[in-house]
C-alpha cells in the first residue's frame, strides 16, 4: 500500500528545493549540475527535485513532501530565507539534515552561498568605478515582495551611498519585470536629460535589458550607453556586455556551488561530518565569491566554465561585436 | 376543486400530480440516480470523479501519493487557502468578485505579526486585531459598493494593490517577521493534530448528529402529510458516511492524524453550509444572487446582504491569512501575494460555484481546494521540470472540470415559459 | 365618456395626487391622481405603455416619483423602497412577476417572510405545507413545489407570484395584469380571490386588459392614456364600448371596427 | 389608426409620440446633455473626468507629467497591453473571461523569437507564426467551450498555467532572447514614429472621413423621413474633434510625434468599433452577450460567435505580445506573466465594459489603458516608496472609477414591465 | 365533448405524431399528435402547465423531443435548432418573448435578418423605417424605436416580439399567447393579423387562454390536458362551455361555478 511504499525506500534520498522558475539559472544550471554530481558520487542516492514558483507556502509544503518521501538530506534554496526557520525545524524533526543553498537560513545545519548583500555591493562598486565615482544614476531594485531583493538593495546602497555617485531616482520593480523597468526608465527621461544619466543600477539582467531598451528607445546610440549593471549572467546579458551595451553582470560560478552542495549532501547522507567549513552567523558554511563579468573577462569566466559556448553568445547579431572583443 | 386531488388516499400531498414519475425503494432510487446521471444533474459528483482520476494517475506514478503522511500534510496545507476560498464562495453567490483576498490575508497577518512580535501583545489579541482588520476592510468595501456603487471588480482590484502596499508599509524595514514557535497560533496551525481517540469520538458524534437531524426532519414531514423518501436509503447513506469517515480517520491516524487546521476548516464549511441552506440569511443571499431586483421587491434588505457578504469574505480572508502565517511560522513581504487570489477563486469555481451568482455551496470551496492541492502535491511527488509542471497543472485542471462540464452538457439548451 | 369627479364614497386607504415620472427623454406619467378605498376594487386600465405599471411601481416603492404626493391611511408618506411598502401593508403582484429563477416555489412564496422553527432554522415543512394549500386554493397545476421557478410554465409562475401576495396581511393589494398568463380555471380563481379580498375590507388595485374581467369584479375603473388620467367610471355605468373608447382615445377604433366587421359577417353568413 | 399619428405634417416619423420631450438646436442639446448628466447616462464621460483629475493632480506634482515626451512614451507603452485589452473587451461582451491573455502573449512572442533568432527565419514569417499560435489557442478554447461546455474561467485558467509552462519550455536554457534591433518589428514598435506632415494628413483625412460619413447618414435619414438631429451640433462636434486632434498632434510633434505602435492600436480600436457597431457580426455578438437564449432562438449561429470571439481574443493577445516584444527588443521568461492579465482586464472594465456581457465598446479598452498608464507614469515621475506606490495606485484607480459609479447611481433602481 | 378524429381537410404543412418529452422527474408531454394545414388556424388550448409551450418549443427546434415524428411539407424532418426551424419557414413568437434586453427595438426586430447596405454595413435607416411601419400596423404605442427593450412596458415588448414574426416569409407562424399582455386595440390588431396570415395561406398555431379570441379566429381547437391530447373541436361546433370543460377535465369547474353564481346574482339584483 501507499504507506509501505513510503517506508520501503532503500538507498539515500536527497531533496533539492529551488525557489522559482522565472530566472534561468535554477533549472538550466543548478539542478542538472547538482544531479550530475550526486550521481557521480553516489550510485544509490536519489535526488528529488522541487520548485516553489516563488511561493513560500508552496515551499513549506514541498519540504513536507520531501520529508514524506523519506529525504535524508534537504538542500533548500528558500523563497524567503528569513522566514524559512519553520520549514527547517519540521525537516530537522524528521531527522533530515538541512543545507541552506544559495540563501541564508538561520536554523540550517549548513549553508552554501554567494552572499546576497555582497552581490549588491559588488554591483554598486563596479558601477561607481565605471563612472569614475561621479555623476547621477537611476536605480532599479528587485521586487518589493521578494525578500532577497531587499538584501541586494541593502548591499548596493552600502557601496553607492558612500561613493561620489548620486542616486537621481530609485524604483522597486514589482516582479522584477523588464517591461516595468523599461517604462520606468523612459518616464525618468522626462525628468532627467539623457546626458545627466551617467549610469544605471539594475539589480538583475532582466531589468538591465529593459533599461537598455528604454535608453536606446529615447535615442541614445547603443554603443554610447552609460554603464549598466546586472546580475545572473543571462545569455542575453553576456551578449549585451560583449556588444558594449551593458557594463557588467554578476556571475556566480554556479558549477562550483552546485557541485560543492552535491558533495556536502552526499557526505551528510552517508552520515559523515564535513570539517572544512567556516562559520557564518553561527552556521557551518561554505561561502563563494561572486564574479563580476565585464567585456574583458567574458572569455575567462562564463566561457571558460562552460556556462556558455562562444557559439551561444556569438549569434549573427553579435558576430561583429564578438570578433571585436576577441571572442570566437 | 382543490379537493379533487386530495381525494387520492394515502398519497403524500406533494406527490399527487399524475405527471410525476414515481420511484420507490432502493431500486427506484437507483433508477432516479441513473436518470440524473444521464440528465447531467449530479451536482459535484463529476468533479469527484475527476479527483479520483487524478488520484489514480498520481498513485500509479508513485504510491506514496496516497500515503497517510501525504494525506495529512495535504489536508493541513489546503486549509488556509480553503478558508479564504469560503469567503470567495460567498461573494460569487452574489455574482460579485473579490480580487483582494490574497492581499487582505497578507496584510492582516502582517498587522497581527507586528502587533504581537514588535509590540509584545498576546497572540490572542494579535489575532483579534488581524481579524478586525479584515472585517474593517469588508466594511469599507460594502460602503463603496452600496453608497457609491463602485463595481466589486474595481474596488477589490484597488484593494489588491493598496493592501499589498499596506503589507510592505506595515512590515517596514523588517522584511520578514518570524512568529514565536511556542505561540498558540503556531502550535495550533502547525503542530496541532487531533488525538486518535478524540478523532473517533468526533466522527461518531458527527454521524449520529446528522442521522438524528434527518430522522427528526423525516418525522416532521410525515406528520405534515408530506413525502419522506426511503428510510432504507437514509440509513444506508449514514452507514456509508460513518464507515468512510472512520476508515479515513484510522488511515490518517497511522501518521499524525487529522490536523486541527483541517478540522477547523471543515467545521467552518459545515457551519457555512448550514447558514446558507437553513437560515433566512442564506435564503436571502441566494435570492439576491439569483435576481437582485426580485429580492429587493420581496422586501429583502439587499444592502444588508451585501454588507454581511463583503465583511464575511474579508474576515475569512484575514482569518485564512492568520492560519497561513501560523503554518509558515512567519510573515513576509510575499505573504498572500503569490497566486493566493487565483487559487482561492479557482477552488470555488472548480467546486461548482457559478461566477454569475445564485449557484454554489460551501462544499464547493472544500472540493475545489482538495482538487487543486492534490494536483500540486502529486506534481511535487512525481518530480518534474517547471515548464512541464505548469503545463500538466493546466491540463489536469482542465480534465477535472471537463468531466463535470460534459456531464452537464445535457442541461444547456434550456428555455422558459 | 362619463367623468366621475366626486371623490369615492369610502374612506381612502391609498391616494395619489399630482404624481409625475419621467425616464430619459420620455415623460411617462403626468399629474396622475388615484384613490383606493378600503374594501374597494379599483381597476386601472389603459393602452400598452400608458404608464399603469410605472404607477404601480411608484406606489410599491420600486420607483421614486419626480413629484406628487402619496397618502396612506390618511397620512402623507414617502415610499423609499419595497421593504417599506410591504411594512406599511402594500402587497404587489408585478407584471414581470419578480421571482427568483434559481429558487424553488416554496422559497419564492415565502421570500422575505420565511417561517422559522426554533427561532433560527427555516421551517421547510410548515412552508411546504402552506405552499400546497395556497397553490391549491388558486387551482395551480404545479407538479412539485420543489421545482426551481426556472422550470415552470408562464402561467405556473404567475400563480406563484399571486399566491405570494396572500402570504401576510396586506391592507392594499395591487395586481398588475395578474391573469395575463393564466388558464381559464385559474383566472376564475383569481377573480374569486379579488372578491374575497374585497370582502375582507382590503383595497385592491387591479390592472387588466380584459374588459369582461374588469367589469365583473371592479367597483370603479380609472383610465390612463399616454401617461395622463383620461377618464374615470363607476363600473355599473360603464359599457365595454365606452371603456374601449376611453382607452384608445377614439370611438372609431380598431376594436369597434372588428366588432362591426364580425357583426356584418355573422349577418351575412 | 396608424394614420392618426402620421397626420401631423412635417414631424419626422420617429418623433411623433407626444410623450417625447423635444429639444431643438444647440440650446436644446445642452438641456438634453444636462438631463443625461443628472440621469447618469453619460457613457464614458465620468471616467474621462476621472482621468482629467488624475492628470491635474500629477501635473501639480510635477509639470513634466504632461510634457510632449511623457505623452509620447505613455501612448507608446500603452499600446501593446491596449491591443490585448481589445480582445478582452470581446470576451467580456459575451459575458465570458479570458485569464490567459498574458501567458498567450508571452508564449506567442517566445515562439516568434525562437523561430526568428534560433532558426534564422525572417521576422515576417516569425510574426505569422506568433499570430498563428494565438489563433490556434483561440480555436482550441472555442472547441473546449462549444463541444465540452467547459466554462471560460476554467479553460483560460488552465491556459494561463499551461502557456506559462509553454513559455519556459520554448525558451529552454536561453532565458532571455534578444531580438535583432534592426529587425522590422523592433524598428516599427520601438523606433517608429509618424513623420510630422504625415500625421497632420492622417488627422485631416480621419476628420473628413468621419464628417462625410455622418453627412451621408444624415441625408439618408432625411430622405427616409426620419429625424436627423441638429446639423450645427454635428459640425461643432467635428470641428472640436479636428481642433483637438490637430492640437494634440502638434504638441506630440514637439517630441517624437505619434508612435506607429499607438497609431496601430488606435486603428485597431476604430476598426473593431466599426465591426461591433456597424456589422451583422457585431450586432450578433451584442445579442449573444445580452441574452444568449434569445439570440439562439432568433436563428443566430451562436457557436460561430463564440468561435470568432475566442479566436479574436487570443489572436489579439498574441499580436499584443509580439508588439510588446518588439518594444522591449527581447523575450524572456517573465514576458506576459507580470500583471498583463490583470492590467488588460482592468483596462476593459475601467473603460466601462460590463463583466456580465452585452455592454461595452472598443473605446473602453483605449480609455481604460490610458487611465492605467497615466497612473503608472505619474507615479514613476513623482517617485515614491514602493509601499506608497501600491497604495496610491489602488486609491487613484478607485477614484477614477468612483466618479463614474456615482454618476451612474441614478440608474440602479430599475425594473421592468 | 366532441372528438374530431378524421384528419383535417387541407393538406398539412406541419404534423406531429407520438411526441414525448420529459424533464427530470416530470413527464411533460405524452404521445402528442398535431396537424397544421396551409391557410389553417389551429388553436392550442389547455390549462397552465398542460405542455403547450413545450410543444411549440419542440416544433421550433428549441427542445429536442424524446421520441415521436415531425413532418414538414410532407417530409419527415428533425429540427436540431431554431436556426434550422427558421430556415424551413417556421416563425415563432415565444411566450417569454426571447428578446435581447440590451438591444434597441430595431435591433431586436431584425435580429438574425439584418438588412445590409453595401454588402457589409447594417442599413439602420431602412431597418428603422421598416420597424415603424411594422409597429404602426400593430397599433404599437412605442415612443421611440431606439429605446432598449429593457425600458419598454410588457405590452410594448410583446408587440415587438410579434412584429418580429412578420419579418421574413414564414410558412407556419406559431404564436404562444401573443395577446397576453396586449391592450384592447393591439389585441384586435393581432387577431386581424392572424386572419391576414391565414388569407395568405400560411399555417398558424395560436395558443391562447382567451376562449373568445380562439373562437373568433381559429378553424380548429386542439385541447391538451396534463401533457396529453384531450380533445379536438371544429371551432364552429365548439361552445365555450365545452371548451372549458375539456380544458379543466370536468364540467363542474370553477368557471362554470362562477358563471352560475353571477347569473344568480344578476337574477337576484
Ligand atoms: N425546462 C424545464 N424543466 C423542467 N420542467 C419543465 C421545463 N419546462 C417546462 N417544464 C414543465 O413542463 C410543464 C409544461 O410546461 P409548459 O410551459 O409547456 O406549459 P404551458 O402549457 O405552456 O402552460 P402555460 O399556459 O402556463 O404557459 C410544466 O409543468 C412545467 O413545470
Ligand atoms: N425604466 C424605464 N426607462 C425608460 N422608459 C421606461 C422605463 N420603464 C417604462 N418606461 C416607459 O414608460 C412607458 C409606460 O410603461 P409602463 O410599463 O408603465 O406601461 P403599462 O401601462 O404598464 O403598459 P402595459 O400595458 O404594456 O404593461 C412606456 O412607454 C415605457 O417605454
Ligand atoms: Mg404594464
Ligand atoms: Mg406556456
UniProtKB/TrEMBL annotation, chains B, D:
Subcellular location(s) per record: Cell membrane
User: Which InterPro entries does its entry note?
Assistant: ABC_transp_permease
**Organism domain of life:** Bacteria
Give the UniProt keywords, A-Z. Cell inner membrane, Cell membrane, Membrane, Sugar transport, Transmembrane, Transmembrane helix, Transport
Residues crossing the lipid bilayer are: 42-60, 66-92, 99-117, 123-146, 153-172, 197-217, 229-252, 258-276, 305-328, 340-356, 388-406
> What Pfam families would the database entry show?
BPD_transp_2
Instruction: State the membrane topology.
Output: Multi-pass membrane protein
Protein task: Part of the binding-protein-dependent transport system for D-xylose. Probably responsible for the translocation of the substrate across the membrane.
PANTHER family, A to Z: ABC TRANSPORTER PERMEASE PROTEIN YPHD-RELATED-RELATED, XYLOSE TRANSPORT SYSTEM PERMEASE PROTEIN XYLH
The name under which this protein is listed is Xylose transport system permease protein XylH
Q: What is the lineage of its organism?
A: Bacteria, Bacillati, Actinomycetota, Actinomycetes, Propionibacteriales
UniProtKB/TrEMBL annotation, chains C, E:
Q: Which SUPFAM superfamilies match?
A: P-loop containing nucleoside triphosphate hydrolases
Q: Name one Pfam family in it.
A: ABC_tran
Keyword presence, ATP-binding: yes
Identify a single GO molecular function assigned to this protein. ATP binding
Q: Does the keyword Chloroplast apply?
A: no
Key words, A-Z = ATP-binding, Nucleotide-binding
Give start and end of each ABC transporter domain: 14-251
Q: Which PANTHER family match?
A: CARBOHYDRATE TRANSPORT ATP-BINDING PROTEIN MG119-RELATED, SUGAR ABC TRANSPORTER ATP-BINDING PROTEIN
Q: Tell me the protein's name.
A: ABC transporter ATP-binding protein
Amino acid at each position: 500500500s501507499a504507506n509501505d511504499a513510503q517506508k520501503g525506500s532503500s538507498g539515500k534520498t536527497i531533496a533539492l528545493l529551488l525557489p522559482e522558475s522565472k530566472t534561468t539559472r535554477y533549472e538550466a544550471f543548478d539542478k542538472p549540475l547538482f544531479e550530475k554530481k550526486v550521481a557521480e558520487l553516489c550510485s544509490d542516492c536519489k535526488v528529488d527535485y522541487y520548485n516553489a514558483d516563488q511561493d513560500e507556502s508552496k515551499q513549506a509544503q514541498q519540504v513536507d513532501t520531501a520529508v514524506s518521501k523519506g529525504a535524508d538530506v534537504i538542500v533548500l534554496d528558500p523563497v524567503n530565507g528569513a522566514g524559512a526557520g519553520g520549514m527547517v525545524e519540521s525537516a530537522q524533526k524528521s531527522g533530515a539534515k538541512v543545507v541552506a543553498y544559495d540563501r541564508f537560513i538561520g536554523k540550517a545545519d549548513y549553508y552554501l552561498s554567494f552572499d546576497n548583500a555582497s552581490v549588491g555591493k559588488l554591483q554598486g562598486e563596479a558601477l561607481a568605478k565605471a563612472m569614475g565615482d561621479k555623476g547621477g544614476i537611476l536605480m532599479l531594485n528587485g521586487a518589493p515582495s521578494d525578500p532577497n531583493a531587499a538584501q541586494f538593495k541593502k548591499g548596493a546602497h552600502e557601496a553607492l551611498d558612500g561613493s561620489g555617485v548620486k542616486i537621481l531616482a530609485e524604483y522597486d520593480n514589482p516582479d522584477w519585470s523588464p517591461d516595468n523597468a523599461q517604462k520606468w526608465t523612459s518616464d525618468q527621461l522626462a525628468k532627467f536629460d539623457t546626458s545627466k544619466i551617467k549610469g544605471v543600477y539594475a539589480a538583475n539582467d532582466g531589468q538591465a535589458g529593459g533599461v537598455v531598451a528604454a535608453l536606446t528607445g529615447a535615442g541614445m546610440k547603443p554603443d554610447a550607453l552609460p554603464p549598466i549593471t546586472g546580475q545572473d549572467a543571462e545569455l542575453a546579458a553576456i551578449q549585451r556586455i560583449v556588444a558594449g551595451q551593458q557594463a557588467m553582470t554578476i556571475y556566480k560560478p554556479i558549477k562550483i556551488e552546485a557541485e560543492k552542495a552535491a558533495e556536502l549532501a552526499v557526505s551528510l547522507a552517508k552520515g559523515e561530518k564535513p570539517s572544512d567549513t567556516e562559520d557564518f552567523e553561527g552556521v557551518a558554511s561554505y561561502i563563494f565569491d561572486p564574479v563580476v563579468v565585464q567585456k574583458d573577462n567574458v572569455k575567462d569566466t562564463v566561457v571558460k566554465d562552460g556556462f556558455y559556448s562562444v557559439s551561444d553568445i556569438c549569434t549573427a547579431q553579435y558576430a561583429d561585436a564578438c570578433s571585436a572583443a576577441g571572442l570566437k | 376543486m382543490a379537493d379533487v386531488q386530495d381525494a387520492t388516499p394515502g398519497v403524500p400531498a406533494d406527490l399527487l400530480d399524475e405527471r410525476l414519475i414515481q420511484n420507490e425503494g432502493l431500486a427506484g432510487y437507483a433508477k432516479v440516480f441513473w436518470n440524473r446521471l444521464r440528465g447531467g444533474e449530479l451536482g459535484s459528483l463529476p468533479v469527484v470523479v475527476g479527483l479520483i482520476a487524478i488520484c489514480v494517475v498520481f498513485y500509479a506514478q508513485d504510491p506514496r501519493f496516497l500515503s497517510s503522511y501525504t494525506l495529512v500534510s495535504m489536508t493541513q496545507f489546503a486549509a488556509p487557502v480553503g478558508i479564504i476560498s469560503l469567503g470567495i464562495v460567498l461573494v460569487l453567490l452574489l455574482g460579485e468578485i473579490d480580487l483582494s483576498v490574497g492581499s487582505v490575508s497578507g496584510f492582516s497577518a502582517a498587522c497581527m505579526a507586528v502587533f504581537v512580535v514588535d509590540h509584545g501583545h498576546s497572540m490572542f489579541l494579535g489575532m483579534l486585531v488581524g481579524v478586525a482588520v479584515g472585517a474593517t476592510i469588508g466594511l469599507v468595501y460594502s460602503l463603496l459598493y452600496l453608497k457609491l456603487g463602485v463595481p466589486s471588480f474595481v474596488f477589490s482590484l484597488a484593494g489588491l494593490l493598496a493592501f499589498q502596499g499596506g503589507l510592505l508599509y506595515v512590515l517596514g524595514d523588517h522584511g520578514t517577521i518570524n512568529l514565536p514557535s511556542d505561540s498558540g497560533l503556531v502550535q495550533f496551525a502547525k503542530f496541532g493534530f487531533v488525538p486518535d481517540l478524540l478523532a473517533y469520538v468526533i466522527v461518531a458524534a458527527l454521524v449520529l448528529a446528522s442521522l438524528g437531524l434527518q430522522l427528526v426532519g423525516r418525522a416532521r414531514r410525515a406528520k405534515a402529510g408530506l413525502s419522506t423518501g426511503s428510510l432504507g436509503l437514509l440509513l444506508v447513506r449514514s452507514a456509508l458516511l460513518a464507515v468512510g469517515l472512520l476508515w479515513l480517520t484510522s488511515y490518517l491516524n497511522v501518521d499524525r492524524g487529522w490536523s486541527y487546521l483541517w478540522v477547523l476548516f471543515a467545521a467552518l464549511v459545515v457551519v457555512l453550509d448550514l447558514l446558507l441552506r437553513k437560515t433566512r440569511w442564506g435564503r436571502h443571499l441566494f435570492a439576491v444572487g439569483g435576481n437582485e431586483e426580485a429580492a429587493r421587491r420581496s422586501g429583502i434588505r439587499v444592502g444588508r446582504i451585501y454588507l454581511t457578504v463583503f465583511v464575511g469574505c474579508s474576515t475569512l480572508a484575514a482569518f485564512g491569512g492568520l492560519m497561513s502565517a501560523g503554518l509558515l511560522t512567519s510573515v513576509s513581504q510575499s505573504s498572500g501575494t503569490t497566486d493566493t487570489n487565483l487559487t482561492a477563486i479557482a477552488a470555488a469555481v472548480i467546486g461548482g460555484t457559478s461566477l454569475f451568482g445564485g449557484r454554489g455551496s460551501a462544499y464547493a470551496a472544500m472540493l475545489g481546494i482538495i482538487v487543486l492541492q492534490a494536483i500540486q502535491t502529486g506534481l511535487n511527488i512525481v518530480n518534474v521540470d517547471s515548464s512541464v509542471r505548469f503545463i500538466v497543472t493546466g491540463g489536469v485542471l482542465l480534465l477535472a472540470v471537463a468531466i463535470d462540464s460534459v456531464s452537464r452538457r445535457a442541461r444547456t439548451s434550456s428555455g422558459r415559459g | 365618456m362619463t367623468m366621475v369627479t366626486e371623490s369615492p364614497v369610502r374612506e381612502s386607504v391609498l391616494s395619489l395626487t399630482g404624481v409625475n415620472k419621467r425616464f430619459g427623454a420620455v415623460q411617462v406619467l403626468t399629474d396622475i391622481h388615484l384613490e383606493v378605498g378600503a374594501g374597494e376594487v379599483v381597476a386601472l386600465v389603459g393602452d400598452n405603455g400608458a404608464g399603469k405599471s410605472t404607477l404601480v411601481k411608484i406606489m410599491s416603492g420600486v420607483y421614486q416619483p419626480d413629484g406628487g404626493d402619496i397618502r396612506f391611511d390618511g397620512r402623507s408618506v414617502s415610499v423609499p423602497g419595497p421593504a417599506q411598502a410591504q411594512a406599511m401593508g402594500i402587497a404587489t403582484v408585478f407584471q414581470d412577476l419578480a421571482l427568483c429563477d434559481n429558487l424553488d416555489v416554496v422559497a419564492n412564496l415565502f421570500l422575505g417572510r420565511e417561517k422559522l422553527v426554533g427561532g433560527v432554522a427555516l421551517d421547510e415543512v410548515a412552508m411546504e405545507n402552506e405552499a400546497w394549500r395556497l397553490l391549491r386554493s388558486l387551482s395551480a397545476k404545479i407538479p412539485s413545489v420543489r421545482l426551481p421557478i426556472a422550470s415552470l410554465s408562464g402561467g405556473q409562475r404567475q400563480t406563484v407570484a399571486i399566491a405570494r401576495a396572500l402570504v401576510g396581511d396586506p391592507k392594499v393589494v395591487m395586481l398588475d395584469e395578474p391573469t395575463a398568463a393564466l388558464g381559464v380555471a385559474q383566472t376564475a380563481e383569481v377573480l374569486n380571490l379579488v372578491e374575497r379580498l374585497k370582502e375582507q375590507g382590503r383595497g385592491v388595485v387591479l390592472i387588466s386588459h380584459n374588459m369582461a374581467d374588469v367589469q365583473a369584479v371592479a367597483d370603479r375603473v380609472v383610465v390612463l392614456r399616454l401617461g395622463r388620467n383620461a377618464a374615470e367610471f363607476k363600473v355599473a355605468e360603464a359599457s365595454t364600448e365606452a371603456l374601449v373608447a376611453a382607452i384608445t382615445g377614439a370611438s372609431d377604433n380598431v376594436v369597434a371596427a372588428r366588432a362591426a366587421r364580425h357583426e356584418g359577417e355573422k349577418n351575412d353568413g
